[in-house]
Specification:
Layout (H helix, E strand, L loop, with lengths): L1 H18 L1 H5 L6 H47 L8 H17 L21 H11 L2 H4 L4 H25 L5 H22 L3 H24 L13 H18 L1
Helix pairs in contact: 1-9, 3-4, 3-7, 3-8, 3-10, 4-5, 4-10, 5-7, 8-9
Length: 256
């Protein structure tokens, strides 16, 4: 479906421009200096959209890395708790990471072109609440030095905050006004190319095909990449998987 839509959007507009070429050739008074402004506006808007989407991906990667590091720090603190007080912390942290990997990341999400971002039926919300309850339990905190207690609470806060940022980026919604403006400027740039720079029907057709076959696939890929955890190149929970392995090894050493 996506491939058919892309082919149609790349071929039909050039054919329409080719059909209108006798009328376009009659527009001799249009100045190229004026029409080039449209292309500049389209390019600037495209750069802004690209920068916003790439920044969202970097923010998601950073949030996942910080979340994983905070979980490892929680495991390090738990491994030094006396009287096996760290055992419930290990269990809660491991359950949280396993649930986050299983439920917070879409599996096999197709390329999203229209409609909202992929929704999740289940998330790690209950597990992060359980982790908070275990860490903030008075019986657990009483066995810790005040400085270690503050550090443990700070790491729990980091887990919760970075999880919220990750979930927020997953449920990101596109700015429709921004995308409609970008598509409008794309079409107007095509018309400016046809009006100013093309003198015959064959050249109009070739120029329009080159333009749309270059711009449309890029725009489609860019649109699908608005959600960092889906699309053509989704982010995977590699950092959380590494944190889970580290928690398992620390828990095994703590029990022995």
């Amino acid at each position: 479906m996506i491939a058919v839509l892309l082919i149609v959007l790349s071929i039909l507009p050039p054919l329409a421009i080719w059909w209108l070429s006798p009328f376009l050739r009659s527009l001799d008074g249009v100045q190229s200096q004026f029409m080039n402004i449209i292309g500049v506006l389209f390019g600037l808007n495209l750069v802004f959209v690209c920068n916003e989407i790439w920044q969202s991906r970097e923010a998601a990667t950073l949030a996942m890395s910080r979340e994983a590091e905070a979980l490892r720090n929680i495991g390090r603190i738990a491994s030094n708790m006396p009287e096996q007080a760290g055992a419930p912390v290990f269990v809660a942290a491991r359950q949280y990471v396993e649930t986050a990997i299983a439920n917070d990341f879409p599996k096999g999400t197709p390329l999203v072109v229209f409609g909202p971002a992929p929704a999740l039926d289940k998330t790690s919300l209950l597990e992060v609440i359980n982790l908070s309850d275990v860490i903030l339990d008075r019986r657990t905190l009483e066995k810790l030095d005040p400085a270690i207690k503050s550090l443990l609470i700070a790491e729990l806060t980091a887990v919760r905050d970075n999880r919220l940022e990750r979930i927020a980026l997953l449920t990101l919604r596109p700015n429709r006004v921004k995308w409609f403006s970008l598509i409008f400027l794309e079409v107007m740039t095509l018309l400016s190319i046809a009006v100013v720079h093309v003198m015959n029907k064959r050249a109009i057709l070739v120029a329009c095909l080159l333009y749309f076959c270059t711009v449309n696939p890029f725009l489609l890929t860019l649109y699908s990449s608005q959600w960092p955890f889906s699309g053509l190149d989704p982010l995977h929970p590699i950092a959380l998987e590494a944190a889970l392995d580290r928690l398992n090894s620390m828990e095994a050493a703590y029990k022995h």
